[in-house]
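Tutorial sheet, problem 5. The two components below are modelled jointly, 1002 residues in total.
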Amino acid sequence: MESKFAELKNRLAEVTDLTAAASVLNWDQATYMPPGGGPARGRQLATLSSLAQDKFVDPEIGKLLDELQPWAEAKGYDSDEAALIRKTRRDYDRAVKVPTDWVARFSAHSAGAYQAWTEARPANDFKSVADNLKKTLDLSREFADFFPGYEHIADPLIDGPDPGMKASDIRRVFSELREQLVPIVKKITDQKEADDSPLRKKYPEEKQLAFGLQVANEFGYDLERGRQDKTHHPFCTTFSIGDVRITTRVKEKYLADALFSTLHEAGHAMYEQGVNPDYEASPLAGGVSSGVHESQSRTWENVVGRSRGFWEHYYPQLKKVFPAQLKGVGLDKFYRAINKVERSLIRTDADEVTYNLHVMLRFDLELQMLEGKLEIKDMPEAWHDRYKNDLGIQAPSDVNGALQDVHWYGGLIGGAFQGYTLGNIMSALFYDAALKAHPQIPKQIGKGEYNTLHTWLRTNLYTHGSKYTPNELIQRISGGPLRIEPYIRYLKTKYGELYKL
Amino acid sequence: MESKFAELKNRLAEVTDLTAAASVLNWDQATYMPPGGGPARGRQLATLSSLAQDKFVDPEIGKLLDELQPWAEAKGYDSDEAALIRKTRRDYDRAVKVPTDWVARFSAHSAGAYQAWTEARPANDFKSVADNLKKTLDLSREFADFFPGYEHIADPLIDGPDPGMKASDIRRVFSELREQLVPIVKKITDQKEADDSPLRKKYPEEKQLAFGLQVANEFGYDLERGRQDKTHHPFCTTFSIGDVRITTRVKEKYLADALFSTLHEAGHAMYEQGVNPDYEASPLAGGVSSGVHESQSRTWENVVGRSRGFWEHYYPQLKKVFPAQLKGVGLDKFYRAINKVERSLIRTDADEVTYNLHVMLRFDLELQMLEGKLEIKDMPEAWHDRYKNDLGIQAPSDVNGALQDVHWYGGLIGGAFQGYTLGNIMSALFYDAALKAHPQIPKQIGKGEYNTLHTWLRTNLYTHGSKYTPNELIQRISGGPLRIEPYIRYLKTKYGELYKL
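Model answer (structure tokens):
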């Protein structure tokens, strides 16, 4: 059995190596590739991913999983062997249940749909993409039907990015959250707007990058096993546990963009760097879900990086880096500016309080479309209605409405958005557990010390990689199921100090 | 047949995509990879190259080649179809004749041999690597014997980097060249040494890089399909015809290093960028041999880049970039400095005249070792003797002697060096043909115009990629076989103006 297990691991390492190679090629394309490299790069990436897929769905892997399962289970649920078989079995079953014919049809369709969207968005022409979106919806339903026995048609779609999470559970949690959030947002936005003009002076790019990276490094992002580069859209990418990179977008005239996106991506990266090195080149390496991943980016970006304690330590340093720009701007004013809450139309620009409303309305629209209760042609209006209702504003067009996000135009409908808000909820849940174990953490943050928090997160979360499901992790760490109380408490405490609530 | 041909091309594109992906990973490792990425990167590269190899030696490719050969040949020798079958057949036969067992043994051995060399060189400890080198020699002979019927045991080894070139031909050409060169070197080095101290002031790195890249760009190196990055050792790497990159090493205190290595690598890159785009993702893409490749790096680095005309145009610009460093240094003095000839021990630092002596003695030692006429244990002394004889100097130790180059310690013995000097010889041969077609080229170089030369090289050489063998190219371009006269004439003319010959 040991030798069969070794063979399985070798085969999985080969698959991981191919996907890691594709990640390097993607990173290169986003960072340094000259324009002429585009056409060949597309073909190279297609070759790598199709080879990785072929190698993974090899029936020999299914046979090894069957043979190894009893042996691994005998080692106990918490053993790495059992976890590897469990996780691989889950991924394998998901992969083999989807016919190659569907994969080919979807990939041909999505390339065209994405291209059409890039043209439709600037032209505010939803009609031109409606048929594509209809096809995407059909393909999404087809995909769900490869996994019969689901409770909700969205479940198989959610199960990819957020394994084990169900539409019904998320719906319940989201509706509780929405009920709490809508009045908070109303109360805040009825008050005087915070002034963020100090953030909108001219901040030289290199200094912004250096400051953000220094903070990320002090959080615990290991630069011997990572690096930062500039891209149009910030992201984090993993080539191995020893090589987890972040990218940052810098706006010369908006200090908050590069800084907080660096801390955000560093949060993702610290999660990936913190995985048990024994899991290298296996399906256990890497964060377990989009929600849990987002919980860590949000912890370091928001819970830590937008806290008052954090800036008590760093603001004097920031003023030294940008003395002219921040002259006469006190800590209070700066802290209010970076936590400005406002009704806005663009999800990616939204503040911590309103952000979830953007996400949850998209999630609801996804479910309604999948359920057949909302037709594609009516979706843009439903979008506008929800913005009016939840955020009290309406977009002048679909450009900042239903054409806003790439997700449905480059991928499937279903499972695309919930991870963002699940992550926010979990960030407070996990941070709460960390504070219960180490009440001194906020005080340490005020002194620029992150070792206790980072070590606790590494030990209780990061090291496990994909060993446990998100729900298992939530139970292990917080002693109960997913719940919004800690997150609501966090928001009410923080924003109760900034605004009258 | 058309559909079989398309299938062959698809299979070859898959192989090319895998090797291109490996090239991206190698480039990343040399440029931006953080140290922690090393172990996984080694594994990822091994996976990619072994998959590429598996895909290429697939018997289905052999079958397709058999079936397609008559069909392709009927289209005529000069057709792209016939060329693709010819070139692929050649590569395929070379690949399938080498048993996987040998490949595994060699790759295990060479990793250890390379590691041992990195330790032996600084310790001047040839003895510690002698057994490894003996094994390398055995493996090199074994390799040759997979190709029975050779005329000289080095032929199958040379045939990889320089297809169709034979030890006997190279030996003949090299011995003529050596006979001519040794007295020239003696005559020059008996005269007063050129003063290159102006090159050894402090030159800020970024300005060096920018100047070199500007010149490369003006030569015709297309930056929409290429870029420059910094590495420890300069190289050129191809990911596709649309993405050919160069890297440069910069020494703050030696102007000539970055500048001429940039022009050198840009020469390689222009060759690769100039290949017929129809050959993309096939064995016809890319330069045909190490010798022909080197002819182009040497053309742009030396024949053009170290010529007087070139500097008549560029020296005023260089002086503007480095006014303090070049104050009081006239064009004559600068031109002498960049063409300083000296007896030296290190091949990679050698000037245009002595360089070939370094190369040819290594080639001769390779042949003697392979012939069994020189034992490994006696090789370091033979090395010293040849330096004394050909260059009139002797290294104080093996550090700058037999331990100097990585080639035999990371690869095979045989075929490692001849390309450098073949390239020098061909650079003059091809340049001569260009001048016959366009006598105005030297005048244009004096005005910073390269279009005529670049277009001629692209049309007569670059566009063919690997369609023709090196000997076919030499015949097509120069109307005869490989010969040294143009090169000797070039050296005698140029150095006859700088020194009394």
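Marking note: Chain B touches chain A at residues 13-14, 17-18, 20-22, 24-25, 28, 32-41, 43-44, 47-48, 51, 222-227, 229, 239-243, 245, 280-281 (CB under 8 Å). Full credit if you identified this.
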